[in-house]
Structure formats: C-alpha cells, structure tokens
Design a protein that fits this description.
By secondary structure, this protein is mainly β. It has one domain (about 5-395): YVTN repeat-like/Quinoprotein amine dehydrogenase (Methylamine Dehydrogenase, Chain H, 7 Propeller). It is about 0% helix and about 50% strand. The protein is built from no helices and 30 strands. Strands 12, 13, 14, 15, 16 and 17 form a six-stranded antiparallel sheet that branches.
C-alpha cells in the first residue's frame, strides 16, 4: 500500500532491470484485475484519465509492482482455493499500457490481493496452506527471468484459529542491500478486554493491535521472525473495528491510523502515528482528527507532503486526508462508499483512486492538492473509468518520490 517514486518518471536505485533499460514513458501506472462484462480480466488503465489501455482474460488474485527493477508481478488464480497459482512476471510500457511477459512460474497461492510485500530483490507474502494454517512465502526476485521460491513453510502462530488475525503487511525495502523488513499488523483477538479511559463503556471491548517484524536478508532462505506477540501499538473495537496503515519508505517508518473504539461518544477522534520499524516505538507527534466510525479499511501515503489518505467505511463513510504535521488541518470528503472501498495514491499524477468492488462497483478519483498543512481533495472532472468491478488494484511504485 502506498509507494515512492523517481525523477522524470524513472525509478531510481537498485538495478536497471531486464536488458539494462527502463521504460521511458513518464506516466504513472494503474493495473486492475476484476470482472468486465461477466469475464475475469487483467486491465491496464491511464491513471490520469481512467481511460482503458487494454485488457486480457485472466483471473487475477493479486498484483504488485517492484520499483527496483520496474517489474510487475501478477498472481493468477487456479481452480482450487489452496492450489498453486501462476505468477506472471511482466514489464509495462506506461505510455501505451502494453505488456511484455518475461517469465511465469507456479507458486504457493497468495491469500489476498493486499498480501505481498515487495522488498529489494525479494517478495514476502502470506499463503493459506489449508483452512487452519497460514504460511509466509519468500521469493527470490534478484533475476526476474528466473524467480525462485526460497521458502514456503514459515507458519504464522494462531492465524488459522482466529485467535490472531494479520490485517496486512507493511514493507520497507533495503535500498542499499538485498531484502529489507516487513512488519505484520496483527490483531490479538485472544486478548480482548473491556475498554478503558475515554473509550470505556459498558459492553465495549477492545483488542490489542501488535506489530511483528520479519527481517529478510540476502543470505537467509526464510525471514527472521520477531518473537510473538511482537509489540502492542494500539487497540481496535472487538466488534466491527479495524485500523489501516501505510509505509513511509523515505523516512523508514510505519504509519498507522486508528479509529475511536467508542465512535458513538461525543467528540470521538481517530488518531494517526508514525512508528519506528525495528522497535515499534512512536516516532514524532500523534495527530488526532474527528471521525465517527470504527473501521478504517485502507490507507495510503503522500511522501512529498506527508499526508495520510484513509477511508472509514462502517459509519462515517468518508475519505480523509490527514497532515502528519500537528499544525495541519485534516479534511474529510463524502464518497459513495461501501465496506469494501480502498484508496491508492498514484504519486506521479497526485491522484487518489478509490476503487469499490462488489455488487455495486466503481473507481472514484480525487486530486490531492494544497500543501503539507492544508491539503485538498478535488474531484477529477475528466475522470472516466472503465466499467470493471475492481477486485485487485495496484499503482506504480517508485524508489524516490517524484516531488516537484
């Protein structure tokens, strides 16, 4: 979720990729897997206009972009829920949306469209190995023509039992060496307790949210996992509560946004905070803002102005832009939201994309303008997206932000 970018539209750092050349198109990239006219397709879209470039038949489970080699990874579903999937490794010409497929291989099935953490020459993701066991898979992507599975038998404790749920992965690539680290965001449903303090209330329980670090190094065939349960960084309501998160790759920090546990209380406030990636301790000031709902479903990050983008989808049903500078003014915009809507920030065009999948589906687009203290979200008048039900979405990531 989120990303960083390179000058003149070119990723910087890492290797030059296949053949030593990078695409010269200046545009950002938007790739969608979903249903078009009752058919499962993979589609490339102009992120500045919503115009469809092209589509092809494919049952897409997940999409990820590697900014170091400027390569896209696409997991294609197979018939069985737990069967191996086909991983497509491709290059994309951004100006035309045309693919070049450079390799495919069978890999353990990824268990969600948001479960891939792209590092430097490595990808870590989670795999449901049966109904009660979740494993961590590690891929070696140092040569995109010859991607290999380093390990796929690294179990997550208590994941299948429902006692602990991994909400997602926050990736921090090492720009100078192979690998990096990934922080797993885990809700501890086995440790819920009555809420205390300003969110206390009769019958209102809250559950700890912990960060658990996975270190990935060149010499290792499996991630080095921090001892469970990791470090607690907050709580969410046991009933219907969830948080969202993003990666500040430039500052090497996790960014978490928590809803109020008791969102019905007068003056209920959400909060966002940066955390150190190793020790998980707070880094910088906490920023609070009004929100009247318990469920942040998704977040992304503008690295140039340090603005957090988030959506609350249970009660408030709004899109938020929150400066991480305490002197800034958070804003909220109404959208036609449902409980499945997400947000992706396309850094080249500075467009925030809000895809909604389900019986009612759409892709909304707002331009993030203003500055680091006073952001604005303005509807894009020329936006005309294709009629696709967007089940998996990814935007082009970069190594260095394209800040003007």
């Amino acid at each position: 979720m989120g990303g960083a970018a390179g000058t003149a539209g070119m990723p910087t750092g890492g290797t030059a990729g296949i053949g030593g050349m990078l695409p010269t198109g200046p545009e950002g990239g938007l790739v969608i897997g979903g249903v078009l006219n009752s058919e499962q397709v993979l589609m490339t879209v102009n992120p500045e206009t919503g115009e469809e470039f092209n589509n092809e038949p494919m049952n897409v489970k997940a999409i990820a972009h590697d900014p170091f080699a400027d390569v896209w990874y696409i997991w294609e579903r197979t018939d069985g829920v737990f069967d191996d999937q086909t991983l497509h490794i491709r290059r994309l010409t951004y100006a035309t949306g045309v693919w070049e497929e450079i390799a495919t291989l069978a890999v353990p099935a990824i268990d969600g469209h948001d479960r891939a953490a792209v590092l430097n020459q490595r990808i870590l993701y989670t795999h449901a190995d049966g109904p009660t066991l979740t494993q961590i898979v590690l891929l070696n992507t140092s040569d995109p023509l010859n991607v290999t599975v380093l390990s796929d038998a690294n179990p997550l404790p208590d994941e299948g039992s429902g006692m602990k749920i991994t909400s997602g992965l926050i990736a921090h690539p090492n720009e100078q060496a192979v690998g990096g680290l990934v922080n797993l965001v885990r809700i501890q449903f086995d440790s819920c307790a009555p809420a205390a303090g300003p969110d206390g209330g009769v019958g209102l329980d809250e559950c700890p949210v912990n960060l658990v670090r996975a270190d990935v190094r060149e010499a290792d065939v499996a991630p080095l996992m921090e001892a469970e349960p990791g470090v607690q960084v907050g709580t969410v309501a046991q009933s219907g509560g969830s948080l969202a998160f993003a990666s500040d790759r430039s500052g090497n920090r996790d960014i978490l946004v928590f809803p109020p546990v008791d969102f019905m209380a007068a003056g209920s406030m959400g909060r966002t905070q940066k955390y150190q990636t190793q020790a998980h301790t707070p880094s910088g000031p906490e920023v609070s803002f009004p929100v009247n709902g318990p469920r942040f479903s998704w977040a992304d990050w503008d690295p140039c102005n340090e603005i957090l983008l988030a959506v609350e989808l249970k009660e408030d049903k709004g899109a938020f832009a929150v400066p991480l500078d305490p002197a800034g003014t958070p804003i909220r915009r109404d959208l036609v939201l449902d409980e499945g809507q997400k947000v992706y920030f396309e850094p080249w065009s500075r467009i925030a994309l809000y895809p909604l999948a389900g019986l009612v589906f759409d892709i909304d687009a707002l331009v993030l303008e203003g500055d680091r203290l006073a952001p604005t979200l303005t509807r894009l008048p020329t936006w005309s997206p294709p009629p696709i039900n967007p089940e998996a979405v990814a935007v082009r990531n970069y190594v260095t932000p394209p800040c003007n």
